[in-house]
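tool_call predict_complex ligand=guanosine-5'-triphosphate
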Amino acid sequence: MPYISYDKKEISFKIVYYGPGMSGKTTNLMYIHNSLAENLRGELVSLDTEEERTLFFDFFPLELGQIAGYDVKFNLYTIPGQIYYEASRKLMLEGADGVVFVADSNPLRFDRNITSYEMMLDNLASYHIDAEQFPIVLQYNKRDFPDAIERGSLEKVLEIQVPSLEAVATSGEGVMETIRTISKMIIEGFEL
Ligand SMILES: Nc1nc2c(ncn2[C@@H]2O[C@H](COP(=O)(O)OP(=O)(O)OP(=O)(O)O)[C@@H](O)[C@H]2O)c(=O)[nH]1
Ligand SMILES: [Mg+2]
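tool_result ok
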């Protein structure tokens, strides 16, 4: 559920970048942050504690304008994908309005993508979120790998149907398309 500030006349949606360790989540966020005009974006904040390494920032997506006179704001979050951060990853999903799952196209990481996605589904379920009704975009990142996994191969194994995109986060390819896709899905499903 988005956070609505009645005095600021703002609606804030939370988008979580989720995925296995080293798939490119932080690279996506940094690229988006760098691409935005300074007056539209908040500071890139990195919270490093012993239990948690969270990275987040918020921004006003200009092209989406207002909803019923309210400014729209997005809060983007990511935390490390390694196994030992499982508790934080679950917490991070609390109140999420949508998820970008950043998959690693390196064929050696195929199984890690699957495990991470399954854990995400469990975590969403623990918040009573029905993943089939929830905005999820699957980003096949690292498409510059010569033997990259086939687009669609993860959905087959996971038996899911979600919009997917290809990306090379290090060069920014596909990064803005991904955030636009998830934003639109979130806004379309929202009523004030
Ligand atoms: N070749 C290639 N490398 C990439 C791409 N995207 C990210 N990387 C590299 O992969 C490594 C991990 O990227 P991060 O963005 O830190 O990955 P992460 O998902 O945030 O990792 P954790 O926070 O540890 O879960 C870095 O060395 C990136 O430069 C890509 O599209 N192609
Ligand atoms: Mg990271």
